[in-house]
# Entry
Amino acid sequence: MTHANAPLTPTGRLRLARCIVEDEWPLRRAAERFQVSVTTAARWARRYRDHGEAGMTDHSSRPATSPNRTPTRTERRIIKVRVLRRWGPARIAYLLGLNPSTVHRVLTRYRLARLTHLDRATARVVRRYEHAAPGDLVHVDIKKLGNIPDGGGHKIHGRAVGGRHSAAHRDPARPRKVGGRANIGYSYLHNAVDDHSRLAYTEILPDETKETAAAFWIRAQAFFTGCGITVARVLTDNGSCYRSRLWRDTLHEAGIVHKRTRPYRPQTNGKVERFNRTLLDEWAYAQPYRTETQRREALPGWLHTYNHHRGHTALAGKPPASRVPNLTGQYS
# Structure
C-alpha cells in the first residue's frame, strides 16, 4: 500500500530510479521531470541500487526500538482492568497512576472495543443490525413521563417544589399535595420507530393499557402506510399490553408478525430506546416549559424536524426521511 502522502506510486518510483541509475540522468533533471525534490529522487535511486525493483515499496516508519514505550507488565494491568471492570481510560488511569492518554493508546494498540460497543452486562460486543428496507421491522415502546404543573416544574421552581411525581395517586379524585402543589400524574409516550429508516411516530397518551396500545398501533400503522411503508414485523418488549390477546389480534388482522425481545435484554429494542432518550433530551427536557400544554404543543414540530431535517449519525448525517422514497414534506 502506498503511503497516503507519497508523491509517487511504486511504478513512478521505479521509472524515476531507472532514469537515474540506468539512463544516467542528473538528479536535478530527474527530480524536475517527476516533480519531486532532489533528496527524494536520490533516496529512490539509492534503494534501487541496493534492492532493485523490490525496494520501491514503502518501508515501515516504526522505530527499531521504543525505549519510552509503556512496559508490558503495565499494559497487561490496563487490559485486565478493562476486561474485568469495563472502565474507560480516565478511571483506569486514576487507579493505576497513569496518564489517560497512555491508557487510551494501549487500549487502541490492542484493538479493544469501545465501551459503547459492548453489552455492559456480558462484556460482549453488541451485534448491530439493520433491516434492508423500510417496514421490515418497526420497534415499538412506551416511555413514562411526568406531567408539568401550571407555572412550571423543577426546572423553574427547583427540586423541592418540582419533585412531586415520586408518589402515585391513592385517590385520583383527590390529588396528593407535595410541597404545597398538587401531584398531577404522568403521561405515556407511545413510540414507533422504523428499523431501516429510523422514521418515528409518537403520541402522548394517558395510560399504557392494552386498549390504548392497540389503538395507538392502528394509528401508527396508518402513518407508516401514508409514508409508503408496508409494515411486516413489529418488535416490542414483554410489557403486559404487548402480551395481551388484543395486541396479538390487532397485528394478526393486519398481517403483521409480532416479535418480542428476550427478557432482560432491552438492547434488542435499542433503536426505539435510543429514540426515547433523544425525545427526552431534545424535546421533553430541552427547555423550561411553563405548562404541560406548552410542552405538548411543541411535540409535532420537533417530530417533523426529527423525521425530515435532523441529521442521524447512523444514516451518515442524513435525516430518516432520506431513506423513505418520495416522502412528502421532506423539505418543508
DSSP finds twelve helices and seven strands in the chain. Residues 7 and 35 are 8 Å apart (CA to CA). Residues 210-226 form the longest helix (17 residues). Confidence is low (pLDDT under 50) at residues 164-182.
